[in-house]
Prior knowledge:
The structure holds two protein chains of two kinds. Helices cover about 35% and strands about 25% of the residues of chain A. Chain A has helices at about 30-40, 60-70, 85-95, 105-110, 110-120, 160-170, 190-200, 215-220, 230-235, 240-250; strands spanning about 5-15, 15-20, 25-30, 45-50, 75-80, 100, 125-135, 145-150, 155-160, 175-180, 205, 225-230. Chain A is globular, with a radius of gyration of 17 Å. Chain B is an alpha/beta fold. Chain B has helices at about 5-10, 25-30, 40-45, 60-70, 70-80, 90-95, 210-225, and strands spanning about 10-15, 35-40, 50-55, 85-90, 95-100, 105, 110-115, 135-140, 160-165, 165-170, 175-185, 185-195, 195-200. Chains A and B meet through loops of A and helix 2, strand 8, strand 9 and helix 7 of B.
Amino acid sequence: MLTRRIIPCLDVRAGLVTKGVRFKDNLDVGDPAELARLYGEEGADELVFYDITASNEKRDIFVDVVRRVARTLFIPFTVGGGLRTLDDLRRVLLAGAEKVSIDSGAVRNPDLITAGARAFGSQCIMLSMQVLKVPVSARIPSGYEVYIDGGRLATGKDAVAWAQEGVERGAGELCINSIDGDGTRAGYDLDLTGRIAALVPVPVIASGGGGHPDHLVRLFKETASAAAILASILHTRDWRIPDIKRRLQQHAIPVRL
Amino acid sequence: MSAVEKASRPRVAIVNFGMGNLFSVRQACLRAGLEPSITSKKAELLEADGVILPGVGAFGRAMETLREQGLVSVLKDLAAAGRPFMGICLGLQLLFDESIEFGRHEGMAIFAGQVVRLEPGIGPAGRPLKIPEIGWKPLRPPSGRGWDGSLLEGLPEGAHMYFVHSFHALAAKSESVLAITPFGDMNYCAAVQQGRLFACQFHPERSGPVGLKVYENFRKMILSGR
């Protein structure tokens, strides 16, 4: 049986890991390769690195980070942030990433999902989406809207419909980021994640709001999510991965110990 | 590098047939004390102390490329001659008789059996089984078989490995099966070994310390046969 995955998320800006609240107010928390090594040793099942550097000239610093991580980390890791073209995907995959996470680039150009899956295989295309709870309307029947550009720009796309379209286009995994939950430590959006996980045939990863081991217990008990993203509670060392996994195990949720 | 150090770093050819990312395989070799070269040249394969056949992607296209490169008979001969050999993921599947991935494709027929699709269904606790299967799963030996003397030697039963795949091998001869892993209410073949020919469906280079142990065991296998 597949174990539920715990995935630390590292936002990287100018070569350093930072963490914000609701995509704002970022604080630097350390060296990406060093944190990756630490989380790997503690039992992270996978890692995600997002390049949140605004300027293009700093992109090379990030690819260098990816290369450095790949030399020392022997678990899968995903790379995202600002990936817009097939060449962008190829660059980080060749630097040693296992998968790519595409987000705003896929909303602007949905063919990026299709072309990426065809070129590199569905298994390495993670479609990530930033989602905000909005009033139910004819345009947004699920009441969840997709945002892009760091949660700043509304797209008018319904999150549930976009999830389905992404899978049809070849995404091998979906990562659902709740903007409402990001950095709040108030728990995952179980309704949003649960609805999408019940609908699509590919693994769904919950992100945004993970602040306590019990949040993961509820996520895995009440939804068909395959994995949970954690950031701030790990970066601050308030909780450590082995403690969280033991809590999950006590609740009969399969984990890799 | 001294002659002794050089001799203890066996040369391993990682077969490059344009399928998948070989970066992590190469890194794992380096970490395990192997001297890897990524190659599609016959001569380099023949000269290497060991061969790794990796791969992610479609079975049919992979066989086609290997045939065009003239490598199918070379790989078969090396395996038959007992050259230490490790197949990974698609590299396991290619060693079987045939695959039914998008049509019927002939494989290298070193192991008897067929490669078939993982069938969607309902898993434990009523959860749907997701395909591709991506994530960590435990390995167990089939009943009556241990891991001593194999590439899984020293691993605890239930060790978790990282899998990414939609197809799996149905081994016709159960004695070649070294490890199994659960999927829904069945088990499928996760690793095979016959003499010095080993292959696994999981990615040891992405499976943390227990995965690196497989590479270290591969090095030991090479050194023990010299």
